[in-house]
Structures are given as C-alpha cells and as structure tokens.
Amino acid sequence: MAATGTTASGESAFYVTTPIYYVNDAPHLGHAYTTVAGDVLTRWHRQRGEKVWYLTGTDEHGQKIMRTAEANGVSPQEWCDKLVEEAWKPLWEHLQIANDDFIRTTEPRHTDRVQEFVQDLYDKGEIYKGEYEGPYCIGCEEYKSPGDLLEGDLCPIHKRPVEWLREENYFFRLSAYGPRLLEHYEQNPDFIQPASARNEIVQLVKQGLQDLSISRSTFDWGVPVPWDSKHVIYVWIDALLNYATAVGYGSDQAKFDATWPANVHLVGKDILRFHAAIWPAMLMANNLPLPRKIFANGWLLVSGEKMSKSNLTGISPRDLTSHFGVDAYRYYFLRAIPFGQDGSFSWEDFSARYTSELANDFGNLASRVAAMIGKYFDGVLPEAKDAGPAEQAIADGLAAAVAQADTLIGDNLDFAGGIGAIFDFVKQVNGYLSEQAPWKVAKDDSAEGQARLATILYTAAESLRAIAVLLHPIMPTTAEKLWASLGAEPHLGALADQRIADLATWGRLPAGAQVVKGEILFPRLENA
Ligand code: MSP
C-alpha cells in the first residue's frame, strides 16, 4: 500500500488531484476521462478505509481565457463564473465525482498564497529579471522551442500558428535544479509513471533545463507579481500552486501537514513536463516536500489526434450518459483503454462491451440469482449446507480477484487490469452456475437435492455481495442497487462502509437475508 502523509497527531490523507482545467470552453470527453479515473482511485481508497482528499478545479487566468471572454463580449471573470457554474461543476455532479474540494485560481485563498510563494522565491534569489524571445502557443500557454514546431510554425499539439513574443520577464532559476531532479527520479523510481513518461522526462532533464520565464507583461489577466505590478505571474506557475493552496499552504498549517504531499497528481501526458520537472523544482526551491507520484494518462484520440476543443468528436459526455447511463460511462473508458496509453473512443465498442460485459455477464448474473432465490426460497437467502470443492474454488477465486484488483487499481492505477480481474471473477461465477445448473437441481425434491440447491444459490449470492463492493468505486449507483437487492444492509451495514480487506472473508452475507429482484441493472440499449 502506498504511504500517506502523516502529521504529529497521526492524521493523514491519501491526496489525489486532477489537473485544473482551462475554462475557455465546456468539459469534453478528455477532461472527464482524467476526472473519472481520479474519482475511481479516490473511492477505492475510501473503500479501503483510508482518509482521502480528492481535489479538482479550474485554471482561470492567462491569455487563452482572456481572449475567449473578449470574443464573447464579457469580462474574463464573468466568463469563468458562468462556465464553472453552468458547465463544469454540473458535469462533475452528473458523473458522480466525489471531490472534496473544487479550487478556482481566481479565488483569493489561491491568489494571495501564489503571491506569497513567488515573493519567497524572489527573496531567496531564485527569481531574476531578464528578457525572453521565442514562439509562444496560446493553446498550450507555453513558449515552444523552435525545433519542436511543425512546418509553417505550427504548434505540434494544437496544429495552430504560434506567436512570436519578445518581452522583459522575471525568470525562475530552473536550470539549477536539473541534477537534484535527476537524483530524485533515480531514488524514487515510481515518482513518474508509467515508465514511458518517466523515460521522457529523464531524457528531457538530462538534456539540460533552461531558466523559466514566470511573468508576463503584455496583458493583465493574472495574479500580479507582488513586487512589480506591471507583470502578472505566468499562468502555469499560478496553476501548479493550486495543489498546495487548496490544502492550506500558507493559511492552515495543520491541514497542509495532514494532506500534503499529494499521493498522486493525475495529469494528461501533454502536461507532464510541468508536473514532473517544473513543479518539483518550484517545491525544492521553497523547501517543500515533493508529491509522491505523477501519473500521466494517455490521450483519447479522434482520428489519431488528441481529442481537443478544435477536433471534438461532436459527442459530449452527456450524449453518452443519456444513452448508456452514468455508471456504464464511468466503466467504459477505464475498462477499454489501459491507463497511461492512448486510445480511441468508438460507439460500437462501447455498445459491444455494454451488452456483453455489463448487461449479459454481470447484470444477468445479478438478476438470475435474485430471481431463483425468490422462486425457490421465497426470497430468503438459504444456508449453504454442503459446500464442497466447487464452492471452495469460488471462494479462492474471490480471494484472488480481491487481491489483484486491490493492487492493480489501488496501488498501480491499472484500472483496466483491476476491472478485468473483477470481471474474470464474474465470469467464474457464471461458469459455476452453468455447471451446477440450480434450475435442474431444483427439480430434485429430496433433502440432498434441496441442500445442494441452497448451497449453490448461497454461493452465488455471497459472490455478488463481494462483487457489489468491488464495483462500488467504479459504478456507485449500480453497486448500491445490487446491495439493496441482496438485502445486505441490515446485516452488514452501508455499502460505503464495507472494507476491501474484509471482502474475501467467505460467508459474510448471512442466511436469512431478504433478497429481492430489483430493477434490471443494465437495460437493453435503445438503437443508437
Ligand atoms: N490548465 C492546464 C492544467 C493545469 S494543472 C496545474 C490544462 N488544462 S486543460 O483544460 O487543457 O486540461 C488538460 C487535461 O485534460 C489533460 O492533462 C488531461 O488530463 C485532460 N485531457 C484533455 N484532453 C484530453 C484527451 N484528449 N485525452 C485524455 N485526457 C485529456 O492543461
């Protein structure tokens, strides 16, 4: 299990963050991808019984936002307020994102601390005044190296022309931190994941870092540099600090100590350099502990390119949830694309997995078992009187699935692998039912026959008890429905209170539980 930050009082939190998203437009599938992943990780750790803090938010300064607001004839603040309240927060609520906080970089709790942080660096001599000239991509809010540009001076990510900028800036002595960063990567092999992301950053830092321009003077939509109000702080420096300001940096030391350092910063691979090189160097410069892990997810692709505002599929997250439901949406992307790799969304693949994995393998299992307990035992869970090797194999299968899913999802962020382990167990239980054929055994009225029937149905229901808990972080509403259908709550308590560590203990759901056939978990899809 990953270590968590601890305080003198022993209070600690497993702290997970998403990038804070630019609010120049409404969230799309790509933003939701990272946010759902963070939510599943968060809920998994809660299910372990850990204290967790999950942060997301919005990045509201910089030229990109300023120009979008201008183009829409409103002030940048008005633009941000509208988008946050009408588009971003409602989508996260709709997708059942259980974040503990939502930070906006225009909030004083953030801007005041950003100024203090940068002032501290200035006082320490880490910041100096200089001049910078180079190609700048507004989409990335980043100076590019001329060698990185595509033909026609296009940004390689946005495929749009860069702007040539020349201005007097303040610079952070980033170049001085190369050796310390490399030493940190060396001593903490899990710091940047997956391995491809780690290798990319190690190469980059080995090539040598340049000092970083951390202020801009050609526009004013940003946090003013405290000692020179003609400049605003570069939007990325402002944005990265959200991870610290949101948990009390400079304002609530007890909270900061109990939460910082972050256990996992989830980021898209496009913004890895900022998180794995610049952010740690900023923290080193102010003597703060470094985050424990930076995990770079791959891109959702559209026609082989990163899905972005300009090349959207035309499909919004809500288009998919209205067809497939929120839980299937949460499931699909994490199940279909190995976390850390790029992947394409396909309506056909989503439909196929919905039908075969969710409706047939899982949904049918849950409804068949409840229906048979209803039919043969009046909905009262019977006792397993004659468990033998076939039942032992199921108990063993469950123990293996729990152990694998816990390591893969909770520690390795291998969501596809972990969900795969849970669904292998679902398949195993289906196979067990096909072999044991309780519908045939039911025809045998002898005491042995009835004992056998009871044992088979108990075994299936007890397996579903554990499956409900394992799927709760991924598909919260469906798991709750299953929990209710098993009549588990009066005996075992709330689903959220079940612990991963107890899951493989066989026989927790007691005979006598009232099993009811609830609504169909995954109804047949309407034609797309
Ligand atoms: N504001 C910065 C981040 C600052 S963090 C201190 C930013 N914002 S963004 O709105 O462009 O969102 C970037 C993040 O959204 C990516 O890092 C990634 O997590 C997610 N994604 C955006 N498009 C994506 C895909 N097409 N595929 C997967 N994730 C994507 O950069």
UniProtKB/TrEMBL annotation:
Pfam family, one: tRNA-synt_1g
Main location: cytoplasm
Source organism, top-level taxon: Bacteria
EC number(s) per entry: 6.1.1.10
Catalytic reaction(s) noted: tRNA(Met) + L-methionine + ATP = L-methionyl-tRNA(Met) + AMP + diphosphate
Xref: SUPFAM superfamilies: Anticodon-binding domain of a subclass of class I aminoacyl-tRNA synthetases, Nucleotidylyl transferase
Assembly notes: Monomer.
Record function comment: Is required not only for elongation of protein synthesis but also for the initiation of all mRNA translation through initiator tRNA(fMet) aminoacylation.
Name of this chain's protein: Methionine--tRNA ligase
Organism field: Microbispora rosea
